[in-house]
Design a protein that fits this description.
By secondary structure, the protein is of the alpha+beta class. Among the domains are: 52 residues, no CATH class; 116 residues, Uridine Diphospho-n-acetylenolpyruvylglucosamine Reductase, domain 3 (2-Layer Sandwich). Helices cover 27% and strands 24% of the residues. The chain contains twelve helices and 18 strands. β12 and β13 form a beta hairpin. The structure holds flavin-adenine dinucleotide. Flavin-adenine dinucleotide binds next to β2, α4, α6 and β9.
């Protein structure tokens, strides 16, 4: 569980099946917002004085249908449990850099090393089932919203902004055949980072670059190898063969080369931005980030990034709440501090804002994978995440969660 959420003075966890969930959402028995926890990896799955609806115990279904190549799941599963459940059928879908996250990853537009070739995990959703914030149950299929403006706007709201509108309990998802992956993971000198960024921007969409900057800079390049073909890209870059992994769950841990120290106990908040190619501006941005990294307030503060583009840009931007379909990079900032160190927390959050400003020109969008309704920049993040779609999203909120039982929008 996220360490900050674990240490929160929460009112407790609610474990509710589908028979009780609508009634609890419909009645003002609890302080709001009611927090929701699936994988429990974000800081906002529990909070001081608030109840958490824990999906992990009750929503654990996994049923793969061979004829349609689709999987029906409960939203209490982690991404590792989902892929493990599909392994025997040699199927998968693009998860992120870890199997730990739960359905928050699927619903908020989570991305991973295969997103450039296969799209966002969210783009694989065919059907969504759950309960709106007002207590009304729903079950929406992608095909059934075509030509129905109201249903289409519900669908759009659920894909990328579900945590503001509903508790999602079940999903039906498209899958792909499992493919082996070539991965190149190396520590590099920071001076080489702009070069890697520019190089990756020329890669075919079968390959993606991720990097993370802590005490050292790690690059983590992944290329899918469909039909057993060999990597035409990574060995040439590495000078020798990249490691071949059987599937996404076999990939080495991202970020392990960024430090030699044992991890210290820490709390953290994470902010993800979205934006265009860095191209010729990569040097100046990295120089600016280097100054900020030299002044990071805690050793666990990090700046990292993952590459988008390719298939993530082929979906119409107005069809989901993930509007930044032309984004090529998601840089994200981890602001860490020692638990109970209030001044350290503030320094770290201030540092995160300065890094965010340094990234803003090239990365004006926000990826709302972590809710920050407890932090002062929540409203700005909403604007940067949803842009001109935000007013319509607020109308949906007024209709579907009028008493703001769920996170404030
Ligand atoms: C180790 C690690 C690796 C990660 N790697 C990536 C990555 O590669 N790419 C990427 O994009 N992100 C990545 N993330 C971020 C992560 O995907 C998001 O923070 C995601 O929202 C976490 O979802 P969760 O269910 O695990 O967390 P939770 O804390 O349980 O939920 C996160 C938020 O989603 C809402 N939510 C969750 N489930 C539901 C539901 N069923 N209905 C309504 N609302 C719900 C909750 O209200 C909560 O605010 C990573 C996070 C970690 C900790």
């Amino acid at each position: 569980m996220n360490a900050l959420a674990q240490d929160a003075r929460s009112e407790g966890r609610l474990i509710l099946g589908p028979e009780l969930l609508p009634a609890v959402l419909a009645h003002p028995l609890h302080p709001t917002p009611l927090l929701v926890s699936s994988g429990a990896t974000s800081s906002r799955c529990a909070g001081d004085g608030l109840w958490t609806l824990d999906l992990r115990r009750r929503y654990r279904e996994l049923r793969y249908q061979v004829e349609s190549s689709q999987v029906t799941i409960g939203t209490g599963l982690t991404m590792a449990e989902l892929l493990e459940g599909l392994r025997s059928d040699r199927r998968a879908l693009p998860i992120g850099l870890s199997g730990l996250p739960g359905s928050g990853f699927l619903l908020t537009g989570g991305m991973g090393p295969l997103s450039r070739s296969q799209g966002l995990a969210m783009d694989h959703i065919q059907r969504i089932e759950g309960v709106w914030g007002n207590g009304e149950p729903f079950n929406v299929h992608r095909d059934h919203v075509i030509g129905d403006e109201r249903a289409a706007s519900y669908w759009r709201g659920l894909l990328g902004a579900a945590p503001f509108l509903a508790v999602v309990t079940g999903l039906e998802l498209r899958t792909h055949p499992i493919e082996p992956l070539a991965v190149l993971q190396e520590r590099i000198a920071v001076e080489l980072l702009p070069n890697w960024i520019r190089l990756a921007e020329q890669w075919p969409s079968s390959a993606s670059l991720q990097w993370s900057w802590g005490d050292y800079v790690e690059i983590y390049a992944v290329q899918g190898l469909p039909d057993g073909c060999t990597s035409d890209l990574l060995p040439a870059l590495a000078g020798d063969a990249a490691e071949i992994c059987a599937d996404q769950l076999s990939l080495p841990a991202f970020g392990r080369l960024t430090t030699d120290r044992q991890p210290l106990p820490s709390h953290c908040e994470v902010l993800g931005r979205l934006g265009q190619r860095w191209g010729e501006e990569a040097e100046s941005v990295v120089d600016h980030l280097r100054e900020l990294m030299m002044r990071r307030p805690h050793p666990s503060c990090r700046i990292s990034a993952q590459q988008l583009g390719g298939a993530t840009g082929t979906v119409e931007s107005a069809s989901t709440s993930f509007i930044h379909r032309n984004a090529e990079w998601k840089p994200w900032i981890t602001a860490a501090w020692t638990p109970e160190d209030r001044a350290g927390r503030q320094h770290s959050l201030d540092w995160m804002e300065r890094v965010s400003e340094a990234l803003m020109a090239l990365n004006p969008g926000v990826h709302l994978a972590q809710l920050h309704d407890h932090l002062p920049f929540h409203d700005q993040e909403l604007k940067d995440a949803f842009g001109s779609w935000l007013p319509s999203l607020k109308q949906l909120k007024a209709e579907l969660d009028p008493d703001q039982r769920l996170c404030r929008l």
